[in-house]
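Lab meeting prep.
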Amino acid sequence: MIDCVSENSVLVTLGNRIDPALTSKIVALCEWLDLNGEGWLVDLVPSYTTLLVVYDPLQRDFRDVTRIVRQGVGGLAQLTRQPSSEGHSHEIPVYYSPESGPDLLALAKLKGLSVDEVIRLHSQRSYQVYALGFLPGFGFLGTVDPQIQAPRKVVPRASVPAGSVAIANGQTAIYPRTSPGGWQLIGRSPTVMFDRHSLSRLSIGDQVRFFPVSRKEYLSMGGEL
């Protein structure tokens, strides 16, 4: 489905649920449009199930863009790569503790688990980057093990420290900078997720794995408490 959402953009909807295979299609369509959008393509904004295509209306009109996008969508069966070969893989250190993750104890109690079990369940799987948003460099990662999924906080915090690792329902994320936030905080990473030179560390389709580090290791990596 292709919908006109403004005088210079269309929204391409490729599905209706979070799915790694769907992310593959969105990444492939982005690559195809990058190759075929010279002179008129302004920006591409991928998300869970959609792709926003921003174009120069002085170079192409809605009908032209729709025709080109449909051509790209029609070739997705040939363009789509396997999810395991997409993007980059990231190993992110995390200091999991009540000191760095003030919701860790409450989450463990809510789920009837020990803190060590929560840490193991969070760090034992690879997460895919499904979307970027909220803040520059904020990646929405999934999917969290059902045993440790938890809803957003009823009352968000006014300030969440940069590097905080958090859970909200089936998603997990790293706050790239200090900001308000309502996710459940379980740890903190020293990894810089965004800067003005290299921009976002993560891209749609990347894979992320977390690994636990001690307090001493976290501080030696430049982490702050």
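Slide two material, second protein:
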Amino acid sequence: MICVTCPYRETGCLEQQPDEAVAKFSNLLTRYSINGKGKTIFNQGELATGLYFLCNGMVKLTRVTEQGEEAILDLLSPCSIIGGGDAHSEKKIRFSSSVTVTELSEVAYLKKADIPLLLQDHPKIGIGLSGHMSKRLRGAYKLVADMKLPVEDRVLALIARIAVLLTGKCENIVIEIPLSHRELAQFAQITPETLSRTLRTLQDKGIIGVEKKGLRVLQVEELRKYVDETN
């Protein structure tokens, strides 16, 4: 997908960038498609030799703890930086998490050597990328805080987060969760059994409906309470 005409351009790391800068950025990228849920783009601990961007699809960030347990850190939507090294440092940087696709995805790679040249010609790209990472950091802070909520609120916060990632908004729609039941429970830091009970409770309260294709949002305002409008 060419960045200049990308439908996600104004929602991600290229927001409000001029066409000339976006075209130069796009021409420097190496793109490839990954077909198959669960396939890995890169692993925790691997050496980063550039920046990776998600063009289409959705990816899952995970990290293995010192105890050997896998933790789901976040989900990322198109036009996001999904990992990479420091372009201004000779120090070797290793990926702090693994990234796997949850569906057919397109990924782009920008070599470390090309980054300074791009920023020299188009410094606003650097400002945009920094702004994108700042937004990601605020989202990460909110996610950490959400994990301290009571279980029902925590699950609703995650459903709202996924709805915004998939559609850009929280509306009366069916959300096709890009995670298995076990993975969603892992993301919420609860057991699959607790997740099942919580979803039944939320369904009984008329907040969501559980359908074959996913979860239907019935009481939109209940989910919007968990959306960070400043992010």
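Talking points for slide two:
The mean pLDDT is 89.
The two ends are 26 Å apart (CA to CA).
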